[in-house]
Amino acid sequence: MYDDLVEMVTVGFLAVPILVGDVALSLRTLSEGDFFLVQQRAAYGSDQEYQRWMLAASTWLVEGQILLADPNAALICYKAYQSLRTPQLDRLFFVLSTLLTRQSDSLDRLEAFFHEPISRNLWRQTGGQYPSNHYNGLPSNNLGMNLVQKLWLAHNRMEDLRERVEQDWAHAKLVASAMSPKGIEQLNAKETALKEADKTRKQDLLDQTYYKWLGYLRDDGTTPYSQTPTFRHASTPDELADEMRRWVAGEKDYHDKVVDDYKQSVLEAYERELEERRRRVEEVQQNLEEEGENPEAIKLVGYTLDQLRDRIQPAIHKTVYEAPKGVAYLHDKYLAHAPESGNLTIQNGKLVVKEPTPEAPLNEQVANRKVEYGAGKG
């Protein structure tokens, strides 16, 4: 998943070998300087002239000979590409376009690459510098730094600074803990919460990048197999507060509608189960009445000592299993009592606490009380 990014960092470009007739070539991705030169060289040319200059600038290896050290090698390649016909030129330019598309797609995974161990390992291997010809063995210094190398360099320098600041801050807290241990504990608790939130954010980013790379997730949150958006859970205080505000305001997203549909299905199943129970009770009562027995009569049956011994002794060796939790359990635990927002309400799109209703003075409450006689009597 990160092979192209590693190559962009260490080598400085992506490359693909091709064969034109009997000549073996290799094309590479272009740097900012290459694009600038192409725009200047083909400023007044046709589309085919632009394609020839693009191919000439991207050609870095011809029959095993490296052209990177020669800044004017593109001119020689350009004259060679002038001898190609339009179909051949279009095929070569299609190969180059595919290579540039790989480079563009790799940028979508760049932020996730920064948070992977491989990125910091490369940084330590290069000694805190961007890879040059001393690292990769290629004469590519005149190409300059590509965008991936620039961002990678800036990110790792900031990471080094952050690690030094955290180390100094840990030393400062160690000294301060002798004078204010409770204050340091509070600071540590807040920092731990912030680190967990940042860890969750990075893990979400890594997961999304991975599933997008596999093709299971689109940028809009849907998948190629379903048009429904993926579910996201609140993981920060701000997200929890916004979710609470939407619940009080009655704003429902796709996830809320799915939950409501499931609740409705549980309620319907619970009603059907109750109706089935009523029907069976009525059927049993009707059968008892037809047999001449009173359905309301309760018959107590006693067991002899031998019967009790026979029932208790096998039960000692039995395994107890938890009864399955059906719709009645779900109804009684989660749906029997609908949750209320309590003292929370929405004002001007914000979640606020309701002002308590002012109570009358105690003397006024006593004066206005009403005594009901005979209360509680039949």
Written account of the structure:
The protein is an alpha+beta fold and 378 residues long. The chain has three domains: 3-153, no CATH class; 179-230; 262-355, no CATH class. It contains 15 helices and six strands. The strands form two sheets. It has a four-stranded antiparallel sheet. Strand 5 and strand 6 (350-353) form a beta hairpin. Helix 3 (47-58) packs across helix 4 (73-81) and helix 12 (254-290) crosses helix 14 (327-335).
Brief summary of the model shown:
By secondary structure, this protein is α+β, with helices and mostly antiparallel strands. 58% of the residues lie in helices and 7% in strands.
Task: Present the secondary structure layout.
Blueprint: H1 3-10, E1 15-20, E2 23-28, H2 32-41, H3 47-58, E3 59-62, E4 65-66, H4 73-81, H5 86-107, H6 110-114, H7 117-125, H8 133-136, H9 147-176, H10 181-214, H11 237-249, H12 254-290, H13 305-315, H14 327-335, E5 344-347, E6 350-353, H15 362-367
Antiparallel strand pairs: 1-2, 2-3, 3-4, 5-6
